[in-house]
Design goal:
This protein is mainly alpha-helical and 197 residues long. The chain contains four helices and two strands, in the order αααββα. It has two domains: 80 residues; 95 residues, no CATH class.
């Protein structure tokens, strides 16, 4: 039974790695070649539409594929054996890659999109609040401020999600450890007996 589960995890992990690498390649190709000017002819990839929307779609495909790839890499090494330093280092490396993507690459690409093609600058107004709310003073929110609010929300939510998932993983390991039985040096299962006190 345990061998069958391990074999299933291994197959799903391997399939996820292959799918992730394939999707990552497709997303990067789309994002790269969609950046070319509309009038420039590109061999083999001239069929890719140009502009900020295809670039963003390519980036989203690449990001989704990177998540599938990291899931497969984690699943491939996950088993019920005791955690070793090598395995802990491997998982720490995967978490570092994940947090770099979530807290570095995603907010950076959002800022590149908002500041570049979308032109969310401080001169463009997003909303003008009614003066009665601010003692008859004119107060407005620019698109640049909205862009920064969205970026802050992205980073904060990813950080909170990372902390919650880390806590849940720790809780899973605690539950697994509680269900394990210890075998004594004599080959018998150790049973804890509650004493009346």
């Amino acid at each position: 039974m345990i061998y069958t589960i391990y074999k299933f995890k291994y197959r799903v992990g391997l399939l996820s790695i292959v799918a992730g690498l394939g999707g990552l390649s497709i997303g990067v190709i789309i994002a790269h070649y969609a950046l070319f000017p509309a009038d420039e002819v590109v061999d083999y990839f001239n069929w890719i539409p140009r502009g900020w929307l295809p670039v963003t779609i390519g980036q989203l495909i690449a990001f989704g594929a990177s998540q599938i790839l990291l899931f497969g890499m984690a699943l491939l090494a996950w088993n019920q054996n005791e955690l070793t330093w090598a395995k802990a280092t491997y998982y720490a490396f995967l978490v570092w890659i994940e947090m770099t993507l979530l807290l570095g690459v995603v907010p950076s690409e959002w800022l590149n999109l908002a500041q570049g093609p979308l032109e969310w600058t401080g001169q463009r107004e997003f909303i003008k609040f009614p003066p009665i709310l601010f003692l008859n003073n004119e107060v407005s929110l620019s698109l640049a401020a909205l862009k920064d609010l969205i970026q802050m929300g992205i980073s904060t939510n990813f950080l909170i999600a990372g902390l919650v998932i880390a806590y849940m993983i720790q809780d899973i390991n605690t539950k697994i450890e509680q269900t394990k039985t210890r075998i004594s040096d004599y080959g018998k299962e150790v049973i804890k007996v509650k004493q009346d006190g």
